[in-house]
Amino acid sequence: MEILCVFCFALVFGVSLDTMDQSRKRKFSPVWDHFDLITENKVKCRICSQELSYINRSTSTMLRHYRARHEKEEQVNSPVINTGASRKQAIDEAIVNMIIKDCQPLSLVEDEGFKELLQLLEPSYVLPSRKPIKTMINQKYEEKKEQVKKELLR
């Protein structure tokens, strides 16, 4: 089924499978999550738009740039899961963060594939329905709004 989906994707979007393979081979380092290839010898940071040289297929320059300029920012912005919180609360929070960051629809929690994934990863976890997820998202929004208000008043 998964192979069929890749072929359907290639047919629908007019992408050759060779192109898909080449792009996969080129970007195996996690640092590629933060950079785009502009030309054969240049990359662009997705966070600050700075262009860097990309010579001999080495990701060292990108990695140094990311660590020096953005790694601490991401640690500050990443959700901190309270160690005293229950496993369910931690997973709920992770799902809410994923829905917000990736602009996923609330119906994600009703998708069979998502339910199967969570069941495989955490068999005892009970996935909340849309309504509690929506409440958690609204609560997170209000918290963030208050935080921004306080920062602006400084």
From TrEMBL:
Keywords: Metal-binding, Nucleus, Signal, Transcription, Transcription regulation, Zinc, Zinc-finger. Residues 1-17 form the signal peptide. Its main location: nucleus. GO terms for biological process: post-embryonic development. It comes from the Eukaryota. It is found in: Nucleus. GO terms for molecular function: DNA binding; zinc ion binding. GO terms for cellular component: nucleus. Pfam families: zf-BED. Residues 26-77 form the BED-type domain. PANTHER family: ZINC FINGER BED DOMAIN-CONTAINING PROTEIN 39, ZINC FINGER BED DOMAIN-CONTAINING PROTEIN 4. This is (spotted green pufferfish) hypothetical protein.
